[in-house]
Design goal:
3 domains, Translation Initiation Factor IF3, Rossmann fold, alpha+beta, BirA Bifunctional Protein, domain 2, 11-stranded mixed sheet
Length: 491
């Protein structure tokens, strides 16, 4: 284990913080609850963002941008929405500062009070639906399939890098439809897009489900989600897609003339994922030596480290590496040749292991004589001696193998941590001893859901979409139940 990293067994929370900081993903900022995303972490986010953006556009969506500031009166138009976000809102009340005449530094100018206070965007439904009112008059204007890449502010009291910060980056899709059926299809489609991305690019298996009424997005008719399992047995909500019904259309009087020449309120969806996916990535795959990143979205897929004595050997190795670099880049593989002589190879090995680079290639003078290189894969730490002939294609295949292996390893762990539970004592014991998802019966009431949460800190993560009907009895109340739901402690 790296001396720089706390082990998972010793302190999982500190292990996570160590990886984020020492892996070069993010740093704390001077603003309480906010973070600085460092270049390595931002490249990771860019890779995730760009792939998601391609997937959105393939399904017909286009990007737009809406204001950071929202008039406070907008939030009050949708009762459930304002109730859901009121405690997290940052409010702008003034627009100017001035020097304190009493020598107290800079103070707010009391004469520069805004006529209407502004909310710093916690989410954009209200400002977007106020805009859609001008965009939509007829069924011919529908559907609107818009996505926004932006930052949002939710004034969290307890923050954690990537997982929960006062400001974070995300995307939010906001679509408008002529019928409820179209909106529901859109909601489910985007959930599938999220699941596809998280499983096939992040290599994290997820369970698709629907939230209980108590856990729905504020203002939604239904909230669909993907739930992932972290290595400490806690769940993490990796993405949500909401069927908003006509709630926001009614709040902002967004109507359209349908094909029968009648006025009707528009049907809506919204959906989003954020930089908390980076936190999920760290906790799902990494180990006590550092980050373990899936090749498809890793900031750097391959690093080549030369082992040399003197400038002459370094020059010979550099010439030999040039065609290897060219071949790798032609296959679309991101690669770095680290011939910096201010650090020893062993230090470089540890540094790139810490950063989770999927493949490391070491090459020295003797390797050149034998026409081989040493290839090390980050996920299993295996080392292989590989011929330089056809090396690029070997690496391409290896990266695909690492991607699949990481997903399969996470899937096996997740499946081993889904447990059916039929009584309260086992439910409480397994939460403490094993964690993971507990598939248990629930009587369907918000009161029971809240009582279970208060007693155990476990919440209903979702009702799986592929659930089978099964007669049973609620683990807490003993009342009849027709299906199991997934409980877990969660981030």
């Amino acid at each position: 284990m790296s001396k720089e990293i706390t082990s998972r067994q010793e302190d999982y929370s500190q292990w996570y913080n160590d990886l984020v900081l020492k892996g070069g993903l993010a740093d704390y900022s001077a603003v309480r609850g906010c973070m600085v995303i460092k270049p390595y972490g931002f490249t990771l986010w860019e890779n995730m963002r760009d792939q998601l953006d391609r997937m959105f556009k393939e399904t017909g969506h286009v990007n737009a941008y809406f204001p950071l500031f929202i008039p406070k009166s907008f939030l009050s138009r949708e009762a459930a929405h304002v109730e859901g976000f009121a405690k997290e809102c940052a409010v702008v009340t003034h627009y100017r500062l001035k020097n304190d005449p009493n020598g107290g530094g800079v103070v707010v100018d009391p004469e520069a009070k805004l006529e209407e206070e502004l909310i710093v965007r916690p989410t954009s439904e209200t400002i977007i639906w106020n805009t859609y009112k001008d965009w939509i008059q007829s069924y011919r204007d529908l559907p609107i399939l818009v996505n926004q890449w932006a930052n949002v502010v939710r004034w969290e009291m307890r923050t954690r890098l990537f997982l929960r910060t006062a400001e974070f980056l995300w995307q939010e899709g906001h679509t408008a439809h002529a019928t409820a059926e179209e909106a529901i299809v859109e909601t489910r489609k985007m959930l599938d897009v999220y699941a596809d991305f998280v499983e096939n690019y992040m290599a994290v298996p997820v369970i698709k489900g629907v939230k209980t009424p108590s856990e729905r997005f504020a203002g939604a008719e239904d909230t669909y989600c993907i739930e992932a399992m972290m290595q400490d047995g806690k769940a993490l909500q990796a993405g949500t897609s909401h069927f908003l019904g006509q709630n926001f259309a009614k709040a902002f009087d967004v109507k359209f003339l349908n094909k029968d020449n009648k006025q009707e309120f528009v049907w809506a969806t919204s959906w989003g994922v954020s930089t908390r996916l980076i936190g999920a990535l760290v906790m799902a795959h990494s180990d006590d030596q550092g980050l373990v990143l899936p090749p498809k979205i890793a900031p750097l897929q391959v690093v080549i480290v030369p082992i040399f004595k003197g400038d002459e050997q370094r020059g010979v190795i550099a010439e030999k590496v040039k065609p290897i670099m060219k071949s790798l880049k032609e296959l679309g593989i991101s690669v770095k040749f680290d011939d910096n002589d201010n650090a020893r190879p062993g230090w470089k090995f540890a540094e790139y292991e810490m950063k989770g680079v999927p493949v490391r290639i070491a090459i020295g003078a003797r390797d050149i004589e034998n026409n081989v290189v040493e290839v090390a894969r980050r996920d299993t730490k295996e080392k292989m001696s590989v011929s330089m002939d056809g090396l690029a294609f070997y690496i391409k295949t290896l990266l695909d193998e690492i991607q699949l292996h990481m997903f399969e390893r996470a899937r096996i762990f997740r499946d081993q941590h889904i447990t059916k539970v039929d009584n309260w004592d086992d439910f409480v014991r397994l939460l403490d001893e094993k964690g993971g998802f507990l598939a248990a019966h629930w009587d369907g009431t918000a009161e029971t859901e809240e009582e279970i949460k208060e007693k155990t800190k476990a919440t209903i993560r979702c009702i799986p979409l592929d659930n089978e009907q099964e007669d049973g009895h609620c683990i807490l109340t003993g009342k009849p139940s027709k299906q199991r739901v997934l409980f877990a402690r969660a981030y």
